[in-house]
Specification:
Elements lengths: L1 E2 L7 E8 L12 E6 L2 E6 L1 E2 L7 E4 L3 E5 L1 E6 L15 H8 L9 H17 L2 E8 L6 H14 L2 E8 L11 H4 L20 H10 L7 E3 L2 E2 L7 H14 L3 E5 L3 H10 L7 H7 L7 E5 L5 H10 L2 E4 L1 H6 L7 H7 L3 E3 L4 H4 L4 H15 L7 H9 L1 H6 L17 E5 L11 H7 L6 E6 L2 E5 L2 E2 L4 H42 L11
Parallel strand pairs: 1-5, 2-6, 2-7, 8-9, 9-10, 10-11, 10-12, 13-14, 14-15, 15-16
Antiparallel strand pairs: 2-3, 3-4, 7-17, 17-18, 18-19, 19-20
Helix pairs in contact: 1-17, 2-3, 2-17, 8-9, 13-14, 14-16
The structure holds zinc ion.
The site of zinc ion has 5 residues, from loops.
Length: about 500
Amino acid sequence: MTERAPAGTTLLVQGGRPLTPGADWHQPACADIAIAGDAIAGIRDRYDVPDRSVEIVDARDHLVLPGFVNAHYHSHDVLAKGTLEEVPLETWRLYALPPQYPPRSVEEVRARTLLGALECLRSGMTTIQDMLTLYPYDERHMEAVMAAYEQVGIRVVFALQYADRKGIETIPFWKDTFPAELHPLLSTAAEPERKLDLLGHFEATRLKAPARPLVSWALGPSSPERCSTALMQRTMELARRYDLPVYTHIYESRGMALQARLTLPQYSGLLIRRLADEGVLDPRLNFAHSVWLSQEEIELLAEHGAGAVINPQGNLKMKCGIPPIRALQEAGVRVALGCDNCSCSDAQNMFVAMKLFALLAAVSDPIPGPPQAAAAIRAATQSGADGARLGDRIGRIEEGFKADLTLIDMNDPSWSPLNSAARQLVHLEAGRGVRTVLVNGRIVVRGGKLVSVDEGTIYEAVKTVMPGFRKDFAEISARVAKLQPWLDRAHRQILDAELDVERLPFR
Ligand SMILES: [Zn+2]
């Protein structure tokens, strides 16, 4: 039965198979989605073709998804994709966040931001959580990032990354293993800003400024061991005052779990216990990685409503391990998905992340459990939205929600025959089918190409800045190579040190 499209309809997505919350996710029925301005105005079996002022998107033979939410991403090292083989996390950080880089040019910051956003959009992401390190902080860089995102038209949950403790003090065995003269080479750019109260500056210049339509602010304390109690408390005080989500890294590697055991006896060696006792644990917090959480800490996350963001690609490439996906699910912890840095993941591809989520859930508990395909899709959409405190606006295809949609062309071997849309999305589709992407009711990808900015100009901008980037990256690589014997020794010590693995949900 057809009916008239709602008043104010500006765009009609016609004849696709939307994964609405109530649909059969294996055989989703065809439906039309009416969009008025930036929001979904209605979803019905069929709307009358409205007058010619309404744009029609022919979605026949397309699966229609809520746009993916990349819940953990850093745009600062986009140009370093594919530069590294698999290396341990502690070594990788020296490549990804070197403080010894000469200051970057505005052109480079702009090019990398555009390129990263392009890759995200082309793989169906409509929202990215950019936890950005700008070191040394430069307001012109911040402006370039904001302008690039605005031009591309992607939704951004933006946080600056900060810390007030030096990296070398937070990694087991480093201080004693490396000769003192090498210590200055071991810090990274996620370090205390020397000249600026970054959080205060961010509050004054951004949080108090008028809202931007596609940008929402977040806070990014780099990780609890790199942030003092005072800094974590100040962060959460701001987060509560402005109702902001907070993103931080936790227990990505064995070394990070070991560091907590060695330095936090008063909290039974548990970082999450420390945060709970400091009064900062709450639903605004999102813990990227969460690979080495103990069972007790998983229960604390559940109790306080804090969430995890799993980044399976980087965790595997940097030899970190497998997150306890099933234990998190069973405890009722919010679990979102991210693709992390380009120098470790390396792809910003939610299809890969969803597939690994489903497969690694099997490793983290071999007993059959809940259907993981649907869980992976929810992690890539709704849970990321919830963690960003945008769960009432994005992450689902529902009337009143923002029109952030990704259309997948099902005229492809991955989709023939159609046995289960959910399972084929997670286990077969790898991104080849992304055809159309809408953000906030606007078409930004059409026919598989970015339309908001000419893609060719982005590739050209990248080519222009690469000679400078390559030269500096080669210097950093040479510096890390000099440190290699000590890095290897420290890594061996981390692996050999005893860790109370019986507290972990699986080994
Ligand atoms: Zn990260």
